[in-house]
Amino acid sequence: MISSLTIAQAHKKLRNKEISSAELVQACIDRIESVDKSLNAIISRNFEKALTEAKKVDSSGGFTNPLSGIPYLTKDVYCEEGVPTTGCSNILRNPTYTPPFDSTTTKRLKKAGAISIAKTNTDEFTMGASTETSCYGVTRNPWDTTRVAGGSSGGSAAGVAAAEGIFALGTDTGGSIRQPAGFCNVSGMRPTYGRTSRYGVMSMASSLDTIGPIAKTAEDMAIILQAIAGKDPLDGTTSDLAVPDYVSELKVSVKGLKIGIPHEYFIDGMSPDVEKAVRDAAKEYEKLGAILVDISLPHTKYALATYYVICPCEVSSNMSRYDGIRYGHGVTGAENLLDHYEKVRGEGFGPEVKRRIMVGTYALSAGYYDAYYRQAQKVRTLIGQDFTEAFKKVDVVLAPVSPTPAFTVGAHANDPVAMYLEDAFMDGAVMAGIPALSIPCGFSNTKSGVPALPIGLQLMGAQWQEGTILRAAHAYQQATDWHTKTPNL
C-alpha cells in the first residue's frame, strides 16, 4: 500500500519513476474512501484539485525537492485559497467560509511541490483534547475505534496513522500535536514558538499557538520542518534566526548526549504501562551511548493551571472577530447590535468555546486581572526559568506524552476539568516556548478485551534546538521498530 510510505521512501520511488505523484495521490484518496467512514478524520475533500496538481508535478519531470508530489492532510484551521475552512465550528460552517488566501505554511509547502488533498477534523477552533468538540463529530482512534484519537489535531494524527495521507499539518497550543500523535502511534512536533509562521492559521491563544508536522518518522518531520520554518514578514512573532539543516543533523550520533529525566513527570496515578515504556526508552538511549541525568522542574506542577488561565484569556480576545458581520454565521431579525452578537455567537459557538470565553473574560475583568492573569504570567516566567536551568545540565528532557493511553469516547463528556488534565505533561514546554516532540515508544498490555494501545515518548529541547530533539528521536527510531507498527483497518 503506497499510501503507507514515508516521505523519504515516497520521494525515492518518485525520483526513480517507480510511481507517479498522481498514483500516490490516488492511493491516498482510495484509502480515505475505504476507511474514513469508521474514523471521521477527514471533514472535507480536495481530491479533484489535488489530482490536477499531481499531474502537473509529474509532467514537470523533476522531483528535486523531497516534498515534490507528496500528498498531505491539512488541519481545518489552516487557510487555503479557494478551499473551505471552518475551524470545525458552526460559526464558519453555515455558510461555509472559503479563504481568499493561503497560510504561509501551506504556501511554502505548495512551493516545495507538496499537495494538500483534504482537511482534517479538529476540536472547535482547536479547543479540546479529543476532537469531541468538533461540529463534525469525534474522530476515532485507528487502533480502537471506541477510543479518541486525541486532540485537537486528532484528525491529522488519525489520518497519518491510517495512511490516508503521507503526512499532515497540526497545531499545538497545549499539546495538540504531541498528544494525538502519542495516542495514534505516529510522530508529531511542536517547534520553538516563533520558528514557524502562524499567518493564515486560525488563532486560539496567540502567545501559545504553534504549528508543526505530524508524520510517520522523525526523518519526515525534519524534512517538513526544513520547508516550513523561518522568518515570515507577515508574522511578527517569527524569528529571523537562520534555519539549520535539520536533515543533516539527523546523522550526528547521540553518544554523549545528556538526557534529563524529570521526576515531576512520573506521578502517582499514571498508567504502569506508560511509565514502563518511557523508562525502557530511556534505557535504550543509554545503550546508544547517551547519559541519563536526574533533574527537577519544580514549577511543573503549576503549568496546567497557568495554561488554563492564560489560554482562555487569549481565547476571549481572539473569538471576538467572529461576529457574523464580515463572514460566517449570520442571523436575521435581531433587535439591535447586541442582540445580533448574542444570537450569532450563541448559535455558532459550541459549549467549550463559550466556556473558555467566559473564563477568560472573567479573568481579564477589572478587579481580577491582577489576581489571575498577571499572576499566571509570573508563574509562566518561573516555569521557563526551570527549563533554562535544566538545559545548562542536559541537552534533552525525556518524559511521557500523556499519563494514560487513549481514553474512550465520552469518558470526560461531563467533566471538563478531567479533560484539561490530559494536558498535564505537555503544558510545561508550552509555557517555556521550547520545542517538543512525540514519538512512539510502546504499547499497553492487552487486558479484559481492551486492545494494546500506543504509548508516546516526549522529547523536549532548549529554544531553537529542534535539530537536537529530532536527532535524538531519529536515533531511537533507528534502534527500535515501534514507529513501524500500523493499525489493522
Features:
489 residues; alpha/beta; Amidase signature (AS) enzymes; eleven-stranded mixed sheet; two-stranded antiparallel ribbon; 13 strands; globular
Folded structure, characterized:
Helix 2 runs antiparallel to helix 3 (about 45-60), helix 6 packs parallel to helix 7 and helix 8 runs antiparallel to helix 17 (about 465-480). The chain has helices at about 5-15, 20-35, 45-60, 90-95, 105-110, 155-160, 180-185, 220-230, 245-250, 270-285, 305-320, 335-350, 350-365, 370-390, 415-420, 425-430, 465-480, and strands at about 40-45, 70-75, 115-120, 140, 145-150, 165-170, 185-190, 210-215, 260, 290-295, 395-400, 435-445, 455-460. The protein has a domain at about 1-250 and about 440-455 and about 465-485: Amidase signature (AS) enzymes. The strands form 2 sheets. The protein has an 11-stranded mixed beta sheet with strand order 1-3-2-6-8-7-12-13-11-9-10, sandwiched between helices. Strands 4-5 form a two-stranded antiparallel sheet. The chain is globular. The two termini are about 15 Å apart. The mean pLDDT is about 95. It is built from 17 helices and 13 strands. A hairpin with a 2-residue loop joins strand 4 and strand 5. The protein is an alpha/beta fold and about 500 residues long. The longest helix has 21 residues, at about 370-390.
